[in-house]
């Protein structure tokens, strides 16, 4: 039915997590299928459900949506996580893309590295977080006043994507967030949102990926 929402991905965070966070903030209910069997992956691909053969897949409103950023933007537009003018929405896009770049330093990929290289990899991520991204987002939040969001006085898709990254930083080194006045206020505001709070403290929130999760993904994809 049109009102049924289904997310198909692996049993972990990855590229689906910002989607989950946005759906939680919107108060949306959804089901999930977690991919573990390569035959099931092949079946979904053969059925033409994933345009480029990649996941996540979100089935909503009679559509099969792929590409995580396209999914996020569809949900943002549908549920009001955008602003009402071109200038503000351009700023939302800039900040959302900046947060995506920060995420792309490799937070979800830490355990994909050999154990003996992980410490150096984490140090590189955190050093760049401190030198480039935290100052930029501190500035953006401060420029928006005391509202606690990146643009305007309501939550936007940029806030959701930033939260995804900040949660990773929080797990690796809470001090970096706590010492950043604006980012800490943002973290507190976002994690106290009823829908997000329920999701983050509920059974649907996966732990950081471990070696077992990586092996599950590799097996599902036939690696």
By secondary-structure content and strand pairing, the structural class works out as: alpha+beta
Describe the largest sheet.
Answer: 4 strands, mixed
Tell me the quaternary state: single chain
Tell me the Rg in angstroms: 18 Å
Number of helices: 10
The H/E string reads EHEHEEHHHHHHHH
Q: How much of the residues is beta strand, in percent?
A: 5-15%
Give helix % range.
Answer: 55-70%
- Overall shape: it is globular
Q: Kindly, what is the distance between the CA atoms of the first and last residues, rounded to a whole number of angstroms? A: 34 Å
* Residue-averaged pLDDT: 95
Number of strands: 4
| Weakly predicted, low-confidence segments | none
The spatial strand order of the largest sheet comes to: 2-1-3-4
